[in-house]
Amino acid sequence: MDYNAALDQAIGKLHEEGRYRTFIDIERRKGSYPHATWTRPDGTESQITVWCGNDYLGMGQHPVVLAAMHEALDATGAGSGGTRNISGTTVYHKRLEAELADLHGKQSALVFSSAYIANDATLSTLRKLFPGLIIYSDTLNHASMIEGIKRGEGAKRIFRHNDVAHLRELLEADDPEAPKLIAFESIYSMDGDFGPIAEICDLADEFNALTYLDEVHAVGMYGPHGGGVAERDGLLDRIDIFNGTLGKAFGVFGGYIAASAKMCDAVRSYAPGFIFTTSLPPAVAAGAAASIAFLKTAEGQLLRDQQQLNARILKMRLRGLGMPIMDHGSHIVPVHVGNPVHCKALSDMLLADFGIYVQPINFPTVPRGTERLRFTPSPVHSPKEIDALVKAMDALWSMCKLNRSANVA
Prior knowledge:
Keywords: Acyltransferase, Heme biosynthesis, Pyridoxal phosphate, Transferase. The protein is an alpha/beta fold.
């Protein structure tokens, strides 16, 4: 086999379809978020405004987080020294897991190197813990959940997105004595819509199923203490296993699950993705714990309120211009484009001509024909920056002669 030719063919296909992904050289500087420095291909530098970051609340720059990380770095050094089983458990890891357990109203929590690994490792391990487990998965679940569900032997059922009636049909068709788990998300990040948590919990009670809720795009953002949509809706006690990230609203790095002490202990003891992975550096764990603790306070609620306000303002102004936004009431603002080439061109022009950075979202992240620009306003985006974005989008939509329409479902 000509391996180089095969690689050329695979990469060439992405170029032909207009969905080849390009990394830009971007440097965040402490205290300046959402501004950053872009190094252009010719080596010159430009100041830009980041509009597609997942550091939703700017906590990656917050003094409380940075101070905690400096303290831990000075006290312990850089790395953790190994896996949690060997030498990678410290007071910082324990403090972080205690904060997470408290955040979700659970007995325990378990920290992983990413939310992707937490999903993959936990869902695949549950098949070992509960032989014959049937997993019911929303069709729009994240790739990490899909990988975990597929791994190993066991039945899976895919229900139509947020379709509780279809989920009921699938549950009714299976052996009532078989162990069951329903895996879904609180916020689906590409459309920004919410999962029907209460209705799914009702079905779980009726059919004796465990509930597994991915709150990756909601932790820190919703609820009086930042515990996610389940906390906002008073449903913490109805979820058996939470999955979340430390790398978005909390502004640091890593992922976790929160559940009963027995559940976390079993996953800790059986999941290869946990057992054989070096633990988070203590400084990262310290920064994440500080971020979580801060966002539980009234000051954290002020950040959440300002972020939600900025999201509503941006949606209102884009909708007023006839932009095809996808508005499901969350903090995420997707603008439908529907063509990968056009989506990439709009992204490039926003960056080069207006100093606005937003990555195109193309297949396979979203289905073909639903390509979009996905804006994530933060509490530190000023009215002036919102105004600049709206005017740039208006100018480009007119220049490219794109359709203006009502909201996109």
